[in-house]
UniProtKB/TrEMBL annotation:
<dbReference type="InterPro" id="IPR023214">
    <property type="entry name" value="HAD_sf"/>
</dbReference>
<dbReference type="GO" id="GO:0005829">
    <property type="term" value="C:cytosol"/>
</dbReference>
<dbReference type="GO" id="GO:0016787">
    <property type="term" value="F:hydrolase activity"/>
</dbReference>
<dbReference type="InterPro" id="IPR041492">
    <property type="entry name" value="HAD_2"/>
</dbReference>
<keyword id="KW-0378">Hydrolase</keyword>
<dbReference type="InterPro" id="IPR023198">
    <property type="entry name" value="PGP-like_dom2"/>
</dbReference>
<dbReference type="GO" id="GO:0004713">
    <property type="term" value="F:protein tyrosine kinase activity"/>
</dbReference>
<protein>
    <submittedName>
        <fullName>HAD hydrolase-like protein</fullName>
    </submittedName>
</protein>
<dbReference type="InterPro" id="IPR036412">
    <property type="entry name" value="HAD-like_sf"/>
</dbReference>
<dbReference type="InterPro" id="IPR050155">
    <property type="entry name" value="HAD-like_hydrolase_sf"/>
</dbReference>
<dbReference type="Pfam" id="PF13419">
    <property type="entry name" value="HAD_2"/>
</dbReference>
């Protein structure tokens, strides 16, 4: 998009397919409460929003139990889940191209920064990022709008130069709350309907289309 040379990327469902590790960690947490979940569709509701809120909303947990569920989730994720993911085809080449075109590339994920840093290093794309931002471990910063705002304020970015790239409604809403443009990718975990309902008007069906849109 013309004039937008600061690109903020979501992580799960945008750069990586991390469903397996997330689902396994959610099941691990639920099992602690004697809940056996076999429905992947229900677990897919956890792909995007803050986990404490998701446990409260989708399993009617109290805030105290939801916070304990998060602890159990992380217990499994740090041991196993963090390794159960793959990078979408073409992501590394896209990021390389953006840097060759002198764009500023940042990560803006609701995943705790501690985990996000490990993931981008392990899959080999850390060198392409100018700045990494994620949620705090104590959940004081976990909403996408707050994370995007954090990236902007920490770097002094002009909002009219920013494009947020993500796959879920929280990416769209978070971008709009910060008055920045957003591109919804349709190869991730959110549907076109979900993104449109959230107010998204720009879409990319593939990683190649994502790269083309950014460079246009």
């Amino acid at each position: 998009m013309q004039g937008r040379d600061i690109i903020l990327f979501d992580l799960d469902g945008t750069l990586t397919d991390s469903k397996e590790g997330i689902f396994n960690s959610i099941r691990y947490a639920l099992k602690f409460f004697d809940i056996e979940e076999t429905d992947d569709e229900k677990l897919s509701l956890f792909l995007g929003p803050p986990l404490v809120q998701a446990f409260m909303k989708y399993y009617q947990m109290s805030e105290k139990n939801a916070e304990l569920a998060l602890v159990k989730y992380r217990e499994n994720f740090v041991k196993k889940g963090i390794y159960q993911l793959s990078m979408y085809d073409g992501i590394d080449q896209m990021l390389k191209t953006l840097k060759e075109n002198r764009m500023t590339v940042c990560l803006a994920t609701s995943k705790p920064l501690k985990f996000a840093e490990q993931i981008v290093k392990r899959i080999g794309i850390a060198p392409y990022f100018d700045y990494l931002a994620g949620a705090t471990m104590d959940e004081t910063r976990n909403e996408k709008a707050d994370i995007i705002d954090y990236v902007i304020t920490q770097n002094g970015f002009h909002k009219d130069r920013i494009l947020m790239v993500g796959d879920r409604e929280n990416d769209v809403k978070g971008a709009h709350q910060n008055h920045v443009e957003v591109l919804g990718v349709l190869y991730g975990y959110g549907s076109r309907l979900e993104l449109e309902t959230a107010g998204c008007i720009h879409f990319a069906k593939t990683v190649a289309e994502t790269k083309s849109f950014i460079l246009q």
